[in-house]
Amino acid sequence: MSVGPDIARIGVRRWPVAVLAAAMAVACGAPPSAPIQVQLPPQPNVIVFLVDTLRADAVGFGGYDRETSPRLDRWAERGVVFDQATTPAGWTKPAVMSLFTGLYAGTHGAEDKEHVAAGELVTLAEVFGAAGYETAAFITNFAVSEKFGCVQGFERYRWFDKKVDASPDASKMLNYVQIRDIDDEVRAYLEEPRERPIFAYIHTTDPHIPYLPPLDFLVFGTEARDRYDAEVLMTDTFLGGWFDLLEEAGLLESSIVVLTADHGEEFYEHGRNGHGVTIFQEIARIPLVVWAPGLTPGRRDEQVSLTDLAPTLVEAAQVAAPPGFASQGRSFWEVITGASRGADWSWSYLDLVFRTKAIAFAYREGSEKILHIDGDVDGRRDFTALYDVAADPFEQVNLAKKRPDRAKLLSEKMMELRQMHRAASVSPIDEPLTGEALDQMRSLGYVD
Q: For the chain, which domains are there?
């Protein structure tokens, strides 16, 4: 049975930096099959901005009618916007590890709250580091911390601790450091003179429960969605400033820049507020914009995933990677440049394995999305639904009984993908959460 491009049943192992460097000496990356119009220098900088919990329709360039993102909207007009980008997982850690490895959560193994990513995984930071890049990460979400193996390959790693780095006027109820409090440090990093190209990953956590923006951004109202939108506006203000800085410093002329999110947020479309329990579209669909020098701006409707980002960046930067790296991701660089478009990008997959909250799987093909929930804390058990997300973007009408043949076929494809991921699985380290780590994860809503 075909489920789109074949996904190899790989054995994943950690490649030492020396091995990666040797691979660099042999090859500098396979050129794309069609001419590329962008003007990238050798070893372009690669900068990824990830905004935690930002649903795609919470920004103007994603269709929102509130003015939550005026600065990013203007920047999006200069980039390539993906309207159907999808997270591979329903919460932060597995989604980000898929971005780092080009593997789905069932393979990289860091699925649940206590899972620590295995050291044998090869990460995007390791690949760029072996190519001579300076690798740096700035993180405000504890779920992407050293505790869970997420620092692998970063020679410079900065996790912002709310006990040390938060503003004195920040609410004691906040479970992360706000973007305003990392602004000076991120700016200083981006302005540093350097002799090597950079691979930088900058992960901000606004907007995130409990939605407590500074009062000067609280302009939409005081309900949960109003406060969430206020944090989007705050993010827009500072992130827009970082983009301006990149342009003023001349870095945009030599950089590939990505803006995305790890997952969305639910506002009672399916009975609750937050994330980590469902994988309906409000969680699944994420913003994704790519900029590169000479790139023709535009919009794309191909279904790309965070899992696809690692091979895309490797191809775009013409960096060699070891065999098997990011083997479940599909490079969409030619989709970005317009050199290739089409049916190969008509499907996507995501899941959620969070034993104390939910186990669920979803597969989308075209506009049809099959969703199966083994069980969740909201009482759904052995629940299967088929949705037409084009006609029903908030998935309110279950078509499984009206289209039983399609529901059966898509369910089979979905579970085949899941089985393939599990067959190539790398076992994570399973460490019970205790002490401060337990408190941190509880404050983020990941532990009851």
A: 44-338 (3.40.720.10), 347-443 (3.30.1120.10)
